[in-house]
Specification:
single chain, alpha+beta, five-stranded mixed beta sheet, four-stranded antiparallel beta sheet, 9 helices, disordered N terminus
Length: about 425
Amino acid sequence: MKLLFIPFALISFTFFAQNLKTEDITYNYVKLPTTPLQPKPESYSSYVTASYEEENKKIMAQYEADVAQAEADYQRDLADYPNKVKAADEKYEKDMAAWNEKGLGAKIIEKQVLNENNKPVKEYVPQPYRKTIPKPAMKTSYDYNALASAHLKIDGYAKTQANAMVYTVTLQGFDHTQPQIKSEIKKEASVVNGVSTTRDVTYYYIEFTYRHPMTARIANGNNQEYFFVSPEEFIEYKTYKSTSSKTAPSSDFSVILKTIEDKILKENLTTINHIVNDRIGFEVTSRTSSLDYVKSKNESHNDLLEAYNNATAGLKSLTMNEALAIQKLNAAVATYNAALGESNMFDKKARIDKDITIAIYFNLLECYFGLRNTAAADEILSKLTVADLSNRDKKLKEKYTELFLDLTNRKAANGL
């Protein structure tokens, strides 16, 4: 925000024309858990398992047994093949000998009168072949240790194996309907020789539904359960619909299914880890907000600019240097409160007029959030309740009201 200082030679007073500036700010802070563990464990260990691995093992064992049986059958038939060929040859030779002993008249009668052709035919002995056993469809196995290391982290706790609480996520497996190639008709216009025509064009796309349920269990070192969560949104199917094209897609859906499976696995692990941290962790959380300041050509609002700089530095230091953050935020709060001593919301010529007063209130709310000072924030919110706010500021106040209500509940749960 900018404030212009304009002196008038012909009058004896000075007034300030304010021009507020707003800057977005993104910073990290530690979010208190909603249901902290008491007494607080010192550390945790995390694991990913899959409920379908036992079934996978049974399916694979049956598959390997079928493959072994097919190989044994093949080797047996291969060993018997020469004997079967020899037996067929011997039988043929014997039958031919008997055939040749028949008189010509008997042969003619059988063929022409009885319509029989009894001349021996050598038996065909097929070559042995190895029966092909198709590999069964199984749910995907993963490097579970790598998944746990990458996705399952509880902020505010050390990660160790000994005497730690156990954080386990159990995968239920990727599930999907059979992908289908669907079509839709779109109108397309074209102009030829100045004449516009519209025609129907067929577009194709792939569609299917999918889900990847999973649960999380937190227990202490004695396997006593702290809590268990099975997010309902993981049970509901989502719909995949590819970009439509005039060219019909391939009916080999394996690449698309694998891509979606990997995507939803990571998304759901991230979501469930956030749920766990929200309940028992001290989650490092990103927040995007804004701070107002006054930038003037003279030095009439340098105090507010300094407070803005202190507030910005304090908020950005919250997770890196807490002592510095508190120092900077308290300095900003002191300056803002001193400026409010000059507030005159009914005098547009005042240095701290209505617009700047409200801007300071919102800046203070952001500082108080960083300091977890809900009592001071409640006082500011009360003052904003009776102030004549714009619609934008009313909505902003509502967001801060919700923010501090949540913070108040979290502080109470943590005994702060």
